[in-house]
Amino acid sequence: MDRLRAGIEEWLEAERDQLVLWLPVAFGGGIAAWFVLPDPRAWTTTLLLCAALAFAAAGLARGGRAARAVALGAIATAAGLALVWWRAERVAEPVLARPVVAAMRGSVERAEPLTARGLMRLTIRSDAGQGLPSRLRVNLAVADVPAGLGAGAVVRLRARLMPPPAAAVPGAYDFARVAWFAGVGATGRGFAPVTVIRPAPAGGGLRARLTDHITARLDGSRGGIAAALATGDEGAITPDDSEAMRRAGLAHLLSVSGLHITAAVGATMLLVMRLLALWPWLAIRVRLPLVAAAAGALAAIGYTWLTGSQVPTIRSCVASLLVLGALVLGREAVTLRLVAAGAMTVLLAWPEALTGASFQLSFAAIAAIVALHEHPRVESWFAPREEGRLPRVLRSLASLLLTGLVVEAALMPIAVYHFHKAGLYGAAANIVAIPLTTFVVMPLEALALLLDAAGCGGPLWWATDIALRLLLILAHAVAAAPGSSLALPSMSAAAFALMVAGGLWLALWRTRWRRLGVVPLVIGASWTWLTPAPDLLVTGDGRHMAVRVGGGLALLRDRAGDYTRDMLAENGGADAAMLLVEQAAARCTRDACAVDVDAGGRRWRVLATRSLYPVDRDDLATACARADVVVSERRLPRACRPRWLRLDAPMLRRTGGVAVTFADGGVWTVRRDGDAHPWFAAARVMPAVTGALRRRFRRGGDAGGGR
Fold first, then answer.
1. Contact at 8 Å (CB) between 307 and 313?
2. Whose CA is closest to 303, among 289, 288, 322, 321?
3. What is the CA radius of gyration of the chain?
4. Using one digit for the tens of pLDDT, what is the confidence trace for 587-624?
5. d(Cα 134, Cα 106) in Å, to the nearest integer?
6. By three-state DSSP, how is residue 176 classified?
7. Contact between residue 113 and residue 153 where contact means Cβ atoms under 8 Å apart
8. Which among 105, 164, 174, 526 is most buried, taking Cβ atoms within 10 Å?
9. How far, in Å, CA of 183 to CA of 178, rounded?
10. Cis before 193? omega within 30
11. How do beta strands 629-631 and 645-647 pair?
12. Calpha distance 561→690 (Å, rounded)
């Protein structure tokens, strides 16, 4: 035992500079534990266990690093869990109890034009005394938007509202959780007429004016991409072009983050340095790099404010400020300690960001890049040296390609976990797209905006348009290439945790023991690859079902919207979904469908209702007795007794969406028994709705909703 303890102490002594990097990891582990564990009893137990572990380790420290590291890690884990618990309670707002059609009055906090979808998304702070949640998110058709509607306006309108929807099926996007931390208690679709009681301030704000100016200069998605680069507004990008960018691994270019902040800061510093160097008196007496760094910091803060101060942009701004501070102090600017400090800063301010794809993708990418180039062998390969232009260019291209491959490998588990797809050509596409965006599109757009003040920016807008056309051509070509993306079913959270742990172990340690990180990485990847795709997916409302027949997924309803089709296909590990009525294995009427599925060496029969019309009780009981699984959005009578599962309205209200694998009898649900996370157990608002509006809602007279 003494020999083992001495070996651990020797290893930690060799890794002493890396130990601090594990503090944000332990802190994030506590945050993750709060999301994974179900209720306050489990959270409290975890806090007490962390406290006991910290005290025990401190008592056994004996001057060694191992015990101190364990104690600090336990304290950090407990702090992370306590912070996100406190944050969830602090942001608590009432949530709508059931779908309603209601009249409301309130002030517009945010107005986001979704030009490509023909919508305006409003975030409204409702007036008190209306029996509604305090903050609502409402989509309004562009044709129904009156003059004077914008941020700061006071409006009166009628809307079809619903509670923020939870994940429709296991592994899908959980908007209810996101809405809880954003304070949004209801979401839906507004109807004309919309009355503007007090108009928005004249001009609509710099961000809105700049977006309108850019989209007026460039048509379609090209204007949308240019606006996204300048203001963070992606509303004018068409769904087809957005999907192509995502499949090609270029979607990160549309979200203002580290790449864009770095380009803005670098361009500002270069311009300030060059201009001030033209004044010899100042160049001799003032440290120009300090002045340039201050200008770069102002540029980072201004760009963050201009683009809406979203969490990813704020995160990148904080990282940029830390880099500039390191440069001013004469320290090495880009290190894993800087990455850890940036991650800790964001988690202290927004602990819920840990669960978002944006946080995970950003920090995984930068950590992979820094860890790669800090490796002594890689550093020696690409270190500057005396050589000709051609070898230098080839060495730079090799560095860029290797970096792209490592980043793609680091991001692939995150992409599969959140989006159920992995791009295969992203590294190659980014070798062209990142320089094109950073060194061509953004400078041209900035100069065009600057020259527009004198009315002569036309030629530069033309050049910007050509560059953006090239970017879209690249995205569509890569997205259309065979095998451009790999569709996988929902990944197990445990498999994802193993891959994250393995990646962190590889990135943060420096001695040969880092190679042990390959073990959990391979186990997690194998687990994911061997996980069978679900044979049956049922949404939480029971209206939509996808069943695996004929080698693909088939949908119960032909009127399922694009979002529902894509969501079910992605979570089922398929590129697209077919219609069940078109499958030979299905027997469908206007009211129900029965389909046979071969899995696990036997045939399974699934019966699903398709309408709310009454069905003969005896016929239904007979059909249920012949089925293994029955799915319905209504409450089924007790006489309906399938051989295995009955997923009707009462059951689905308890479980949420359901995924089933027939071969091994696996059943996964969105909700777990006893789950006490606040977005499931929130205080519910029951608004007073007029009888006429309620009848109209039940008839579906004003269909439509929004998320």
1. yes
2. 321
3. 28
4. 888 888 899 998 888 899 999 998 888 888 888 899 99
5. 9
6. helix
7. no
8. 164
9. 9
10. yes
11. parallel
12. 29
Q: How big, in percent rounded to 5, are the helix, strand and coil portions of the chain?
A: 55, 15, 30
586, amino acid identity: A
The CB-side HSE value for 16 (13 A sphere, CA atoms) comes to 7
**Residue range 315-347, pLDDT digits in tens:** 778 778 877 887 777 776 678 888 888 889 889
Give the pLDDT confidence of 393-414 residue by residue, as tens digits.
888 778 877 887 888 888 888 8
Enter the pTM of the model.
Answer: 0.85
> CA–CA distance from 98 to each of 95, 132, 322, 685, 689 (Å)?
9, 11, 46, 8, 11
The type of residue at 248 is A
Assigned CATH topology for domain 95-203: OB fold (Dihydrolipoamide Acetyltransferase, E2P) (2.40.50)
10 Å Cβ neighbour count for 18?
A: 18
d(CA 4, CA 48): 28
Environment class of 28 (CB within 10 Å of its CB; exposed 0-12, middle 13-18, buried 19+): buried
Q: How far apart are alpha carbons 230 and 298 in whole angstroms? A: 16
The amino acid sitting at 199 is P
Amino acid at 174: D
Tokens 């490509």 label which residue? 116
Place of tokens 């683009």: 307
Q: Are 98 and 146 in contact (CB under 8 A)?
A: no
Contact status, residue 621 vs residue 639, Cβ threshold 8 Å: yes
**DSSP assignment of 29-95:** HHHHHHHHS-SHHHHHHHHHHHHHHHHHHHHT-TT-HHHHHHHHHHHHHHHHHHHHHHHHHHT---E
Q: Determine the Cα–Cα distance for residues 350 and 409; give it in Å rounded to an integer.
A: 27
Q: What angle do CA 492, 497, 498 make, to 5 degrees?
A: 100
Residue type, 251: A
* C-alpha to C-alpha distance for 407 and 384, rounded to whole angstroms: 22
Q: Which helix (H) or strand (E) holds 278?
A: none
The angle, 0 to 180 degrees and rounded to 10, between the axes of the packed helices 22-36 and 40-59 is 150
Q: In this structure, what token pair is assigned to residue 7?
A: 């070996």
